[in-house]
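Module 6 notes. Inverse folding takes a fixed backbone as the condition and produces residue identities as the prediction. Think of it as a translation problem where the source language is geometry and the target language is the twenty amino acids. Below is one complete input and output pair. Work through it position by position during the lab.
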């Protein structure tokens, strides 16, 4: 059988007149950008992926930014000063390939909505606990707030004890309504909703929702 040789280096050719090494140099399994930019909050370190703020997963970010031409079966990531060295293994046109790439990561700093509200002291809604309540009711309220906070990052809150009750300031109006309805269902509390203009933004009133939750004596 007549052997063919690579027209670049002279080694045995296997595809398109090229040896495996020379063919691999001309045909990439993975195409990476030299630099990946992303938006990161300097306060909580969350990063923005489309419209969501999530915990940073830079390996996933790199994979999602990579154009694959073939089938990959192994990835490895080595952290460097300004990014990662990435090794990717796989097959392209039946040829086994191993590639290494150095990826620079660049964070664009921007405050996320949650930290922005915390820094500005702005809360979207308030629960006012009034009447004949007790510590177990407040504990239930805070428990529900923590559970909602697992899926709604805007459901952060602070408590302020006032004359006649307790006020809970929340970043999320949706969370306040959900908690108030739950307290009504569980304890038979009476709900009263009102609104307060707390400022203006972009020419529109900023309106805070206030829900008074009153507990009757049993």
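Target side of the pair, the amino acids:
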């Amino acid at each position: 059988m007549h052997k063919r040789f690579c027209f670049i280096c002279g080694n045995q050719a296997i595809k398109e007149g090229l040896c495996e090494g020379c063919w691999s140099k001309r045909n990439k399994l993975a195409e990476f950008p030299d630099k990946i930019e992303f938006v990161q909050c300097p306060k909580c370190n969350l990063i923005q992926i489309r419209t969501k703020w999530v915990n940073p997963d830079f390996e996933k970010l790199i994979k999602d930014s990579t154009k694959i031409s073939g089938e990959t079966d192994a990835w490895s990531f080595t952290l460097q000063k300004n990014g990662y060295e990435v090794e990717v293994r796989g097959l392209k046109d039946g040829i086994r390939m191993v590639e290494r790439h150095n990826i620079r990561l660049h964070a664009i700093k921007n405050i996320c909505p949650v930290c922005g509200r915390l820094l500005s002291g702005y809360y979207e809604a308030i629960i006012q606990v009034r009447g004949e309540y007790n510590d177990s009711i407040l504990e239930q309220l805070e428990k529900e707030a923590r559970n909602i906070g697992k899926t709604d990052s805007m459901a952060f809150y602070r408590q302020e004890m006032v004359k006649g009750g307790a006020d809970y300031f929340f970043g999320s109006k949706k969370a306040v309504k959900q908690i108030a309805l739950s307290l009504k269902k569980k304890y038979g509390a009476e709900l009263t909703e009102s609104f307060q203009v707390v400022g203006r933004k972009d020419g529109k009133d900023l309106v805070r929702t206030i829900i008074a939750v009153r507990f009757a004596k049993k």
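Reference fact for the lab report: The CA atoms of residues 35 and 104 lie 5 Å apart.
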